[in-house]
Amino acid sequence: MANQNAMPSWLKSLNINNIYFMKDHGEYGVVAAIVIGILLPILFSTLFLGKRRGKVRGVPVKVGGEAGYAVRNARKKELVEVPWKGATTMAHLFEQSCKKYTNNQCLGTRKLIGKDFVTSSDGRKFEKVHLGEYEWETYGQVFARVCNFASGILRFGHNIDSRVAIFADTRSEWLISLQGCFRQSITVVTIYATLGEDALIHSLNETQVSTLICDSKKLKMLDAISSKLPSIQNIIYFEDEDKDASSGSLGNWKTASFSEVEKLGKESPIEPSFPSKDAIAVVMYTSGSTGLPKGVMITHGNIVATTAAVITVIPNLGTKDVYLAYLPLAHVFEMAAESVMLATGIAIGYGSPLTLTDTSNKIKKGTKGDVSVLKPTLLTAVPAILDRIREGVVSKVEEKGGIVKNLFQIAYNRRLAAVKGSWLGAWGIEKLVWDTIVFKKIRLLLGGRIRFMLCGGAPLSGDSQHFINICIGAPIGQGYGLTETFAGAAFSEWDDDSVGRVGPPLPCAYIKLVSWEEGGYKTSDKPMPRGEVVVGGFSVTGGYFKNQEKTNEVYKVDENGLRWFYTGDIGQFHPDGCLEIIDRKKDIVKLQHGEYLSLGKVEAVLSTCNYVDSVMVHADPFHNYCVALIVPSRKSLENWAQQAGTEYKDFPELCSKTESTNEVLQAINKVAKAGKLQKSEIPAKIKLLPDPWTPESGLVTAALKIKREQLKAKFKDDLKKLLSLLRVNGGGGTIL
Question: What keyword terms does UniProt attach to this protein (predicted)?
Fold first, then answer.
């Protein structure tokens, strides 16, 4: 599991230490709770309800293109393209939504009251902020600002035939900039704020960006590389409270603050120039798991199609909902989520991973975190965040011990059994009983009002999904999609409490499985068809910017004109039409004796070990066993060392000790066997690495997926040594 000291900076900030649980109950209170919580639900379940009936969520469909097993969403016979008539582009959708919800809250930002710096024991300084309440702008007010910026960027000198790039952290001005550009048919290039210099230079030069929008803190970095960015002419920066940047000149660039550009447009408005549905809205640079990032060309039609589809899946979206936005808007997951919110009149409150909870790293003591102040009803998360929350809750329960621990375990086990059993047990009386007695306080961790969570970016373990369902009390819609499909592929439905699946196809797309004979995955497989996942429909994007060869490799157009994207993922369809991702073509290695090893499958199993924070499994065709690089959970390993009496001066030394490696190896062997891995799939040799893999280090993506090639390059000597030990000692038992 994740831990604070082995995480990227944005995730490390989710410091979940102060979780407040129910007060210790007296003896009679505990007995009464158990009687009410167990006997009464069992009685009602037995008398009135049986097992839930299966629900068909996806149905087979005949489509064009390569032969395979295709499925559509059971709700819609035809693919949906727009959320309502006339909303063919994001510019049209946004204007219509703003007029419909003109007086409703739209965008909220917390006011900075003050900041301090604290010094740690090793001399490093950390910023702590004191934040106030959310200050809101209505849909009508935001629309006015978008119109002003749309005019202002042209008055400032941007050439309408060139592109704009946004290189900044998520905030309200990011979204206003995006919508302003859409209003003038300007294509926006999105770049992760954590992207390194080389990837940034590559992205800006490849797309020939002329105007760059950024945080003021990025100005110094940009000035240092200005000679390598020949196409940039204009810089627009978001003001920060520090006011450490001013308008004027920066190198040879024309520079202005965001508010100055808004003022230009307000004083001298320009008529909008609306795009077509086929126009490129965004060139989105993925963080990429291999090599330099690729720019995916996303049309307005792609964005509105995914938006329209998701609206049909999440029940009762509307103006009573509040959404907390804190993930990178340069990532397809967050941009798709915020598009859905804008289409349905939902209030979007902006936060930050550094200020998310009351105990986040940047929050000053006594100041509430974003979730406590906003109390959102909707939240997006990547699996690493949910794993972090789970670890914090479990750790606090263990710390409390005694009656609290026993009651929590009884409640959790009963709820888990109920979720897997009767409808009443899952959502009826037993849920009410245990929520009141045990889980109410835990839910305050995320504000106490969450009714639905969207999870994406990577596979979510079944254990974490059940844990969040029970402790936070909200269903999780686990989505599957890619930048190349503008996140629109599959989405699990709110009433589906199964785990390990990503739901049926969204109504904007078909999903087809195509046999991959070499890997042994066929659509004729029993009991479920298997094969490479291919997505076709309105959410499938236009391809890679200036990379026709790669585009032709993974995008195909069938005889009916429908566009398909070959994902490289391996999936299987369950009888109810729900998709499960089971493998990835690039992650499969053929071992010396001909067995196929799925690196991703093994990594998914090993990541459930409490000692494992990050893991990369490595294998080659010259051996019969695999090896692994592991970043251990610092808290778990240090707790073991304390109990075992192992002495060490610092964490790197602890990781280098043979005793530590033996302990982790034994633990991963247990989870590997529990996960039914074959002997050849269990790492025979491992290396413990003390430093976390972060997006900033370039070893994982923004969604925390490992960058296999970069890891192999960085740790090539360690991997070579591990493999050499395989040759000397054979499989099993020998540890580096």
Answer: Membrane, Transmembrane, Transmembrane helix
